[in-house]
Amino acid sequence: MWGQPPSAVPSAASAGNAVDMAATHHARRDRRRALILPREHGAWGLLLVPLVTGAGVAFRESSHVIPVLLLLVAALALFWLRTPAESLLGTSAMRAQTNDERRAVAIVIFGLGAAAVLALGTLLWAGRNPVLWLIGAGAAAAFILQTLLKSMWGRAPSPVRPGEARRPLSARSANRLRMLSEIVGTIGLTSSAPAAYYVMTGKFGTTAWMLWLANLIFAGNQVHYVQLRIHTARVEGIRAKFGRGWTFAVGQLVMALVLVLACLRGLMPWLALIAFVPILSRGWFYFFQKPSPLVVRRLGWSELGQAVVFCVLFIAAFALAQ
């Protein structure tokens, strides 16, 4: 061009190519992360909070930290392992497609598998901690059932009459299956609470079962609340909210009743009820609060904060009750 240095056009083209290469690099990096890192961010809290709760309560009786650290490594590795395994097998939305992606995913699977085997092998060496086999079997059964329920979301029911076309599940039925699958998965995740208590104390009795039940009740309430908020984001008015969320309200009442009965039976100290006050309060407050735009990420962080508060209060209640 007139008056323009000969190198100007190639420089502009080079700059454009550099931008395209950078964008491609970032896209590949983000995709590789999606193939490897778990996408259920809330599930990290459902796994770790029960584990810390069980360990915190166990500190009343034992100070053996090494077993619970090994359990932590095994639990994190096994939980993390599911995402790259599904990516490699092609059973999830994100699938490893190129040889480089398959190689990267396989390396992560090998590393996580080795960490899990080493940690569990140390815990179970020479017949130690035999109850861990039963806890692990229960958790595995829950995760298998969760996978089966998930596979039913998009599967059309069988036709009633021969030759009749399959009809997709209704939105309500799909939502029920989705929440049921999350509750079932929560059973497996919260098993980290009795497992942590067991590996530290060597006991699997009333306290271990109580820890599992308390964490399952808490986590189940969180799952139900999040689903309620998502599916009633545009619902306004107390009457309309109760009309759509009456099952959650009933669940709150049943939750409170079960906790009181647990205290009456001596399964946990009365002081431990304080740990459930924040989550019950936020549940009832939902029906009366003014409508506001739903930010799912903010809701997730809020529920994580609720879980941390529950963990701290629950452990403190047992420490003070002693």
Characteristics of this structure?
322 residues; 11 helices; globular; YwiC; transmembrane; UbiA prenyltransferase
Question: Roughly what fraction of the amino acids lie in strands?
Answer: under 5%
Total number of β-strand segments? 0
What structural class do the secondary elements suggest? mainly alpha
- What can be said about the biggest beta sheet? none
Rg calculated over all Cα atoms = 24 Å
What is the H/E order?
HHHHHHHHHHH
- Average of the residue pLDDT scores: 83
Number of helices: 11
Protein name: UbiA prenyltransferase
Transmembrane segments: 41-59, 65-83, 104-125, 131-149, 179-200, 206-226, 246-264, 270-288, 300-321
Keywords: Membrane, Transmembrane, Transmembrane helix
Organism: Candidatus Sulfotelmatobacter kueseliae
Plain-language structure description:
With 322 residues, the chain is an all-alpha fold. The model has no long low-confidence stretch (mean pLDDT 83). The protein is built from 11 helices and no strands. It starts with 7 loop residues before the first helix and ends with a helix. It is globular. It has helices at residues 8-36, 41-58, 66-89, 99-124, 131-151, 171-189, 192-201, 206-231, 238-264, 277-288, 296-321. The longest helix has 29 residues, at 8-36. Helix 8 runs antiparallel to helix 9. It has one domain (26-155, 170-321).
